[in-house]
Amino acid sequence: MRWGWGFTLVELLLVLAIIGTLTSIGLPRIQESIDRAKIARAIGDIRALQADITSDPLPADLAAIGRAGMLDPWGNPYVYNPHIYGNGKGEARKDRFLVPLNSEYDLYSKGKDGESRAPLTAKVSKDDIVRADDGGYIGLASKY
After folding, report:
1. Of 38, 40, 85, 123, which has the highest C-beta tally within 10 A?
2. DSSP per residue over 70-119, as a string?
3. How far apart are CA 82 and CA 58, in angstroms?
4. pTM for the whole thing?
5. Residues 6 or more apart from 31 whose CB is under 8 A from it?
6. CA separation (Å) from 67 to 62, 85, 98?
7. Helix, strand or coil for residue 140?
8. What is the mean pLDDT of each run of 10 residues along the chain (144 residues)?
9. Would you state the pLDDT for residue 112?
10. How far apart are CA 55 and CA 18, in angstroms?
């Protein structure tokens, strides 16, 4: 008796190997695209928050402009740190020369890892989305 209509085990294994290879190539690219989209959304959110903050006198927190509880694309709250109200510039975000990024307030997302430190050179700060140069730059801390 002859079977003739089926696939051999070798053919099935070959197809599975090809599918596995294509998947291993495609998934990282898909993840990169998702990460870029989340970064772009965070940048847009920070621009919108900046417009709300500068349209009024400098608020004490994001709740004062009706944005309490606003989350970044990674599910973390945006951080707003005005340099008035007793905070001073000791808590201000700083560049690689330890110079504050902004004169009035810092506004940023803690990025994918959800962690952050004041200097942008800290390892956990490299994925942060920051507002710097008093709004002249909004983007990844690692590119500032």
Report:
1. 38
2. -B-TTS-BPEEEESTTTTTTTTS-B-TTS-BS-SSEEEEE-TTTT---SB
3. 8
4. 0.81
5. none
6. 5, 19, 30
7. strand
8. 73 93 90 96 97 84 92 97 66 89 94 92 94 96 94
9. 95
10. 56
Q: Which amino acid appears at position 60 of this protein?
A: A
Residue type, position 56, single letter: D
**Cα 87 from chain centre:** 25
Integer Cα distance of 137 and 63 in angstroms: 24
Question: Three-state DSSP class for 5?
Answer: coil
User: d(Cα 85, Cα 103) in Å, to the nearest integer?
Assistant: 14
Sign of CA dihedral 126, 68, 53, 59: negative
What is the domain partition of the chain in residue ranges? Answer: 9-143
